[in-house]
Design goal:
Elements: H1 10-21, H2 26-43, H3 52-64, H4 69-86, H5 111-119, H6 124-136, H7 140-144, E1 151-152, E2 157-160, E3 169-172, H8 175-190, H9 212-225, H10 234-247, H11 252-259, H12 264-268, H13 275-280
Antiparallel strand pairs: 1-2, 2-3
Helix pairs in contact: 2-4, 5-6, 5-9, 6-8, 6-10
C-alpha cells in the first residue's frame, strides 16, 4: 500500500509527493520510506541532517548486523532517492556503495514433479492456479490479477495487464491450459463464485481476487502432499516453465518475450539449469584416442 499521509512530518510528506510525481509503484514507495525510517532510527535525529560519514557508518552497521546484499542494496536505493531528490543533497550518498548480489541458480521441477504438484493442490481452483503459473509462466501477482476477459481463446493468448515494471504483455495459452480454465470457469459459475467479467480466481468474496498468501499456502500444501523435497514456491513454476521451453529448443528470445524480461541476460540464466541440454553436449574427452 502507498504510505499513509496522516500524522506524518512535512519532510516525509515531501518525499511521498516526490515519489507520486514520478509515479513510483506502491511497493517501491513503501520500500523507500522504510529505508529512510530505518536510517533515521539509527541516526537518532532527522535524516536530512546527516552527513556522508553518517551514511557510510550506517552501511557498515547494516553489514555488521548481517543484512543480506539484496536488503542492503534496496536500502541504499531508497536513501539515494531521498538525498538526491527530496533534500537535494546528492553528495551525502557518495560514500554508500551497492554490493554484489550472489546469483543463485533457480530451483526447477521435472515435468513429472510439476504434474504431481498440480494434482496435489487442494481443489480445482488451486489446481488451475498452478496450471496457469506453469503453463503460461506467470508470476504469482500476474495469476491472481487475471480477469475472465483476459482469456482470448481465438488468438490463444492470455492478456497480462500491468505486470512487473507496469508493462502489459501477452502470455501463451495452450489448448490443455484452455480446457483446464474452462473446467474451472464452469464449476465456479455453477456455484456462483465467479462474477461476470470478474476475477478469474476470486477470493472468498468474489469482488476481490485471491491473495498471494492464499496461493502460497496452497502450493506449499501441494508440495508436501506430492512429497517434493525441493524448496517450492509459485516462482518455481515460472522457472520450470522457462527451463522446459529451453529444453524443447524454443528460441531464448521467444522465452524472453513470454516471461516479460527486459534483458536477455536474465533469461539466459535458465541455460544453466536446462539439464537436458547439458546432457546432449558431448564432452571433448570423448574424442580423445588412447596413446
Amino acid at each position: 500500500m502507498i504510505p499513509s499521509t496522516r500524522g506524518i512530518t512535512p519532510l516525509r510528506q515531501r518525499m511521498i509527493d516526490d515519489m507520486r510525481m514520478r509515479k513510483l509503484g506502491p511497493k517501491t514507495q513503501t520500500a523507500y520510506i522504510r529505508a529512510v525510517r530505518k536510517f533515521a532510527g539509527y541516526l537518532g535525529r532527522s535524516p536530512d541532517t546527516a552527513a556522508a560519514e553518517d551514511l557510510r557508518a550506517f552501511q557498515l552497521f547494516l553489514i555488521n548486523h548481517g543484512v543480506s546484499s539484496i536488503t542492503l542494496n534496496a536500502t541504499i536505493t531508497g536513501l539515494k532517492f531521498f538525498f538526491e531528490v527530496t533534500v537535494d543533497r546528492a553528495e551525502c550518498i557518495s560514500k554508500m556503495q551497492p554490493v554484489p548480489v550472489p546469483r543463485k541458480l533457480p530451483v526447477v521441477l521435472s515435468r513429472e514433479e510439476v504434474a504431481r504438484l498440480i494434482a496435489s493442490a487442494p481443489n480445482l481452483k488451486y489446481q488451475t492456479v498452478l496450471s496457469v503459473a506453469y503453463g503460461a509462466g506467470l508470476r504469482a501477482h500476474e495469476v491472481i490479477s487475471l480477469k475472465v476477459g483476459d482469456i482470448d481463446s481465438q488468438r490463444m493468448v492470455l492478456r497480462v495487464e500491468q505486470g512487473k515494471g507496469q508493462q502489459d504483455r501477452y502470455a501463451m495459452l495452450s489448448p490443455v491450459l484452455l480446457e483446464r480454465l474452462r473446467a474451472w470457469w464452469r464449476e465456479a459459475r455453477a456455484q456462483g463464485r465467479m462474477l461476470h467479467s470478474g476475477w478469474l480466481f476470486p477470493g472468498r468474496d468474489p469482488i476481490y481476487p485471491l491473495s498471494t498468501r492464499q496461493i502460497n499456502r496452497a502450493i506449499h500444501f501441494a508440495a508436501t502432499a506430492a512429497k517434493i523435497d525441493k524448496r517450492v514456491s509459485m516462482h518455481t513454476l515460472r522457472h520450470s516453465f522457462a527451463t522446459h521451453l529451453l529444453e524443447q529448443k524454443v528460441d531464448i528470445r521467444v522465452i524472453q518475450v513470454l516471461l516479460g524480461h527486459r534483458r536477455l541476460e536474465t533469461t539466459a540464466l535458465y541455460a544453466h539449469v536446462a539439464t537436458e541440454i547439458l546432457r546432449e553436449v558431448v564432452s571433448p574427452i570423448e574424442g580423445l584416442r588412447p596413446t
